[in-house]
Amino acid sequence: MNTTIDTAVIVIFSAFVLGIGMLFARTGRNLKSFFAGGEAVPWFIGGLSLFMSFFSAGTFVAWGSIAYKYGWVAITIQWTMCIGALITGLYLAPRWKKAGALTAAEFIRERLGLTVQKVYIFIFTLVSVFIKGSVLYPVARLVSSSLNLPLVPCTIGLGIFMIAYTAVGGLWAVMVTDILQFVVLSAAVFILLPLSLDRVGGFTGFTQNVPDDFFGLLNGEYTIGFILAFVFYHIAYIGGNWTFVQRYTSVDSPKSARKVAFLFASLYLISPVIWMLPPMIYKVINPSLAGLDTENAYLKICQLVLPPGLLGLMLTGMYFSTSASANTALNVVSAVFTNDIYKGLINPNASDKQLIRVARGSSWLFGLGMIGIALLVPAAGGIVEVVLSISAISGGPLLAPPLWALFSKRLTSRATLWITGIGLFVNLFFKVLSPWLLGYKLSRAWETAIGVGLPLLLLLGYELYQRSRNRTADDYLKYQATREQKREDALLQAEQPEEAAAIRQQNRFGLQVIAGSLVFTAVMLFGLSLLATSGAGPTAGIAVVILLAALIPWRAARKVKLYSDLQQAQKFVNADNR
Question: Is 359 left (phi over 0), alpha (psi -120 to 50) or beta?
């Protein structure tokens, strides 16, 4: 490993990404443009951004650890995300767009009331800070280990850098970085995979030297019960997590929202196979890793086979994919705080300039909280334990009731609070108190099944009970009246030509920045191919592919401009006809 070249790549690419955030410093005119891209984000950008928001270094560390220890089951687990996204695309994403709310918290307030919204905002903020703080830890560990830097200062420095461009640029800054990291990580893995296979004598050498059950769909504690529970969990998580809902509401129509989820599903059908093979291959090279050391399997194979500079590129991709995931959460937590707490409860008459200041300040506040959590992850048992435990405890109780409310006219605010409270209490009891008081600990499968299944059973029981009484919730009737009033207000309000033009300009600019970022990445890969002692051909070939891919957002940007010109021409025609 050439540390100097890898460090140079990390510094150059990081400076470039921070520069991207600065480019969007003045594009957010109001909350709608800052947090939702003016509700005109192209669906393919939203889909790729959603995919990368789900991605992080934890994917390489946590799932990479499972892939190293148990093999193919790591891919099986991630395929549950594909199923969850398919269900979301068919039923949930269009519903969120039709709801007409800027954030999921706004929908909860309108449908289930202010008290439920306050409780959910508190729980969601707490859970988001814990989960996204925990995924900052693995990338800090990767960078510190590979570049011989102290872990704690590395965690703090990376965390501060992580939140800088989100606080500055809003949703478009996050999405541009999402797309860039998707390209960088894909390029690095497509170079890593053939080099890894070559090291073990090709695919045959790989398959003949792994344990007999290594390619089983199920393995170890990851049983059929766990997989089925994880399917239901990911339906709730992908369909109802507030960070992902933002991707469905920031596009222009329910049809586009459906496409966002379907693109995510197709990417998660293919990508786990490509992402998880390198740590599985490392099992052949070095089968002796144990305990938390298995979390380093991905880093070890990268250090072993990647040529100079590409390890730095891989680490940068891992870091910024983690940033993408954490920044999406930051953007949404900030949106909820600004839109639903500050504007909704503290200062309803705040100006757009005040709201943008609060949005950026709250991004820093919550980001610092994430850094604090990241520093505590090692004491909690490692990234796999933290992420799966938090998901099992909070996923069902927090996400299932609002999703149910998208379809139900019988669910009340009181029932929602009871179901959420019972679910959280039972999950916390079995996770925290039962092992201590009773000496009994649930298996991973039962932990996930109860965490997701109990809220669903309670919701179904309540729905059937209310249906037998032919009751419609007062909350639902108020929600219908509110939606009708919003439709009437939207029809009465004349379109602001200046704001519409500014939103088109912002979105066109975002697409142009994506195109330029891809060109920059291609040039960097061309340069690294000249320094490579191995893999020069694949590196240069992927650079060509990325350069050609830059044409996609560039042409999309031109279409945004042409659309604006056509609208202007139509106005002249209408004026002539009068």
Answer: alpha
